[in-house]
Each structure stands twice: as C-alpha cells, then as structure tokens.
Amino acid sequence: MAILRLPGLIDPHVHLRDPGLTHKEDFFTGTSAALAGGYTTIIDMPNNKIPITTKQLLNEKIKIAKEKIVSDVGFYFGSMGDNLDEFELVADKVLGLKIYLNQTTGNFTLDSHKLEQIFKAFPHNLPVLIHAIDESTEQVIQVLHSVKRPVHIVHVSSKFQLGKVIEAKNNNLPITCGVTPHNLFLSEADQQRLGPFGMMKPPLRSQKDVEFLWKNLMAIDCIESDHAPHTTEEKMKSEVNNLSLRAQRSNLNGIATSSASWRIPRNDIPYGVPGLETTLPLLLTAVNEQKLSIEDVIRLCSDGPSSIFGIKQDEQTYIEIDPNLKFEIGNLKFHTKCGWSPFDGMKVKGKVVKTYLRGEKVFEDGQILAKPGSGGIIP
Ligand code: DOR
Ligand code: ZN
C-alpha cells in the first residue's frame, strides 16, 4: 500500500490552555495531539486563564512551553486595547496579535472603536488575527481601507462573512482567512445530536453556509482546527443542568420536554471542540471522495499558514500517511487531554503513520517518541 509523504502540517489556531487551565490540556498533551494529527508546528492562542497581554506573561508562558513541547510552537499576543506599549516589546517573540470582537471563552472582547489604533500600533510585518462574525467582519474591512496592514480573519464560517472577505480580496486589501474543520464537516443539523459537544464560537452553520465554504475553497488561505479542549465533565455540566431543567419542567407540566432544551442559551457552557487529531483524517477522507485534492490539503495546511505567518520548516520535517487506512474516529486513542471528539462515530479513510521533526522520528503508530522539551519555539 502506497505511503504518502507530506510536509509537516502547520495549525495556526490552537488553544493549549497552559498555563492556567491545564486540567483541559497542557503543552505536552496538546503538542502530542499535534504530532499524532500530522502537525509539526502549531500556533497557540493567548486566551489563557490570565490572558497573555504583557511581555512578562508571554515570557513566563514560553518558559513553561520550553520544558514540555514535543512539536514546534509559536505564540500570539493578546490585547483588549490597553497594552499598546507592550507591542514593540514582544514583536520578536510572537507570530501575530489575536483580538476578539465577539464573545468567546474568557472575557476577552475588544471594543471595535479601538481597532484603528491597534491596526496602527501593532508591527506591520506581523498579522493581526481577528475573531469576528458577520457585522464585525464588515467593521474590520472598513478600518482596513484606511489602515492597510495584514489582517487574518480566523474561522470564517458563514456565506455572508466569506463573501465579505472575497470582496475585500478583490479590492486588493491585505486580508487572509481560515476555516475550521467543524465548519466544513458539520452543520447546524448536527447540533441537536451533539448538544454541548457541538457548541463552539462561531457556531455550526446552515448547510447553505457549509456548501458556500466548500465551493469557495480557493478563496480560503488555510485550515485552522481551533483546537479548543474542554473536559467531558465541563461539557456535561451543562447537560446535567439541562436535564434537571427538563425534569423540573416535566414535573410541572406532566409532560416530557423535547431535546430542544439543548438550545436554551446558557452562560456556563464552555464553547469549543478539539480538532488536532481529526482534521487531517477528515481532509484525507474528503480527498478520497474527490471533494478536494491532496494539493489543496498541502496548500491549506502547510503552504498557506507558512506564508501568512512566515514559518519556514526544515525539509526533514515531514509526515507519512496511509491514504487507504480506514478507521472510526471514536476508536482513536486520543492524545489530547479532553479525550473526546465532535466527529465521534464518523468513518474516515487516511491516517498519519509517522511524523518526523528535523529528521527525528517523533511519532509512530499511535506512540509519541519525542521527549518533553524537544520541540522548538518559533521564531
Ligand atoms: O469555541 C471557541 N472556543 N471559540 C473561541 O474563540 C475560543 C475557544 C476556547 O478558547 O475555548
Ligand atoms: Zn480559537
């Protein structure tokens, strides 16, 4: 059976939770999940328990990472608009600035009036990454017309939003975008079945949105897993709450309420799903189904992120995949600490068998071979 060699993949959007929330993930388990999923480089988000908005917090995080990582790792800096003085101080240690214009895990939302100031202040050789939805994407593009600097819209999920990005690209604005595997392989039709395990920000979208993303894959610059682990217990807490709510209601009304109670908006559901170990198998399955080509996978998971974030990988950093190996996602022995997947039950074709980092075999047949601390910090 032909084994295929691909460059080591780059995931520019992961939440490794370390430090602060290491019961969900830590630098060792998160980078182990990366190697098992075919990713040799990942870039870690700044929405830690204490958001990474100062040089000191960033240095502390890098120090912790150095001891534990088994893949290469880069970092983003965070901002809520009150730390502009720190930007120059961290410019040589990060691969971009991440800002949130809409609700996410943690209180991290930026007032959009501060956008222009941030666009000016953050070094223009690095991208500003933006968590936005439909309206806020329009605001970003408006500001981008007056302050031209590289901007990357993370996890584009709707037809409207991608349409706006395409329009901005056609107007030659310096904008790129990424899409998540859950917005490509799941839709809001899966929401009820998945309950809290299908809740993330932005949410699962309509089939029409999903189809638009697939149809316009050429306008998308990279695939980003948005690996955002939460424990089963944390996700189930909302289920228990919903169940007790349902029980209360049925006691009151004498009838059982439907599972539509999943849709009761709750503040305590932790949004986010893991993705590092499932993205490539899902994409390889889609290659098998001729929904995209292996060249598209290389563009979206290696060349694209490499050029947006200025990452150069060694020639001897690569993966070997068996494109014909079939398995069920639920049967994977996960390396991520959270241990579950929203893609549970899906049958896929195509698996990573070996991962090499600078010529060293670091993963083989489900086993991590690298020692904690052997990964590199980028840049
Ligand atoms: O669903 C999400 N979870 N979206 C985000 O933007 C953040 C992430 C997290 O950190 O859990
Ligand atoms: Zn994210």
Description of the structure:
- The chain has 379 residues and is of the alpha/beta class.
- It has one domain (4-368): Metal-dependent hydrolases (TIM Barrel).
- It is built from twelve helices and 14 strands.
- It has a six-stranded parallel sheet.
- Helix 5 packs parallel to helix 6.
- The protein is globular.
- The relative contact order is 0.18.
- Bound molecules: (4S)-2,6-dioxohexahydropyrimidine-4-carboxylic acid and zinc ion.
- Zinc ion (ZN) is lined by residues 13, 15, 45, 226, 228.
| CATH topological fold name | TIM Barrel
Encode the helix/strand succession as letters. EEHEHEEHEHEHEHEHHHEHHHEEEE
The number of distinct helices, counting runs of at least 4 residues, comes to: 12
Q: Give the rounded overall mean pLDDT.
A: 92
Query: For the terminal residues, how far apart are their CA atoms?
Result: 38 Å
Could you tell me the number of beta strands?
14
The CATH architecture name reads Alpha-Beta Barrel
Question: In one word, what is the shape?
Answer: globular
- Rg from C-alpha positions? 20 Å
CATH class: Alpha Beta
- List unreliable stretches of 5+ residues: 244-265
Q: Which hetero ligands occur in this complex? A: (4S)-2,6-dioxohexahydropyrimidine-4-carboxylic acid, zinc ion
Could you give me the name of the CATH homologous superfamily?
Metal-dependent hydrolases
Strand percentage lies at: 15-25%
Class derived from helix and strand content = alpha/beta
Q: Looking across the biggest beta sheet, what order are the strands in?
A: 5-6-7-8-9-10
Largest sheet report:
6 strands, parallel
Overall helicity: 25-40%
What is the domain tally?
Answer: 1
